Amino acid sequence: MKIRIWGCRGSLPTPGPNTIKYGGNTTCVEVRLNDGSVIILDAGSGIRNLGKALIKEENITIIHLFLTHAHWDHLMGFPFFRPAYLERYKIHVRGGPRAKRSLRNYLRHQMEAPYFPVRFDAMKADFVFTEGDPEKRIIGSAEVVPIRLNHPNGSYGIKIMEEGKAFVFFTDHELDFMHERSLESNGYVSFCKGADLLLHDAQYTDKEYRLTRGWGHSTFNSATDFSMKAEVRRFGIFHHDPDHTDEQIDMYLSLCQKIITEANSTVDCFAVQEGMELWV
User: Fold this and answer.
1) Are strands 156-162 and 277-279 parallel, antiparallel or unpaired?
2) Which residues pair with 127 in a beta bridge?
3) Residue 39 host element (H or E)
4) pLDDT value, residue 124
């Protein structure tokens, strides 16, 4: 499968000269399966550019959109997703094991007056709001498995498995604070065990976390330790803080790589960049 990053910033978009390398758009990841199926993870501001790219591919008419949760930075790009306004598309909207009505309401509500000038009903795509499966769902040639993450108001991680390869997406996951209905840490390690690629929330430094503990995000150090415990092959630092510049993220990446080296681990650590393409 091919994974393309359309947005990897956390909390809010941050355009400007200090975020050119890693990008300023909020969370949106495209997964293109080996059979051509299209899966989109989250609808942050990055989904706008993804939509512009998809409409150029005339053979693409079915889209699978997974929403990890309803926080604004993960939904804010949806009203600007051009395929949603075109009749030729069928868009399956899925989340974790939650009600179909909730998924529809998340998207509809942000387009109600006075928040947005165009209503949801102006979208002409054929929407299929599907209740998530707590175990797995088959899409094309892949299995898609959700897991409840440790985040305020709830969030879901996603594992996509195809032809013996596994990609795990853990945006908005706090490793050092227990939120309501979260799993024990060993459950998350087991879920990610041996994955070929893990994109994991690593928003804060240890110093910043003294003020943000309980906000739902992890530190670089904790995310790096987690990747080693799970023995993943590649670990991507994700959900960059809006205040972190390209230069700072470079520095934090070096520190994570140092931790891995000193632990004699084989994990390949990198910082996720907008526009990056990854093969699993």
Assistant:
1) unpaired
2) 91
3) strand 38-41
4) 97
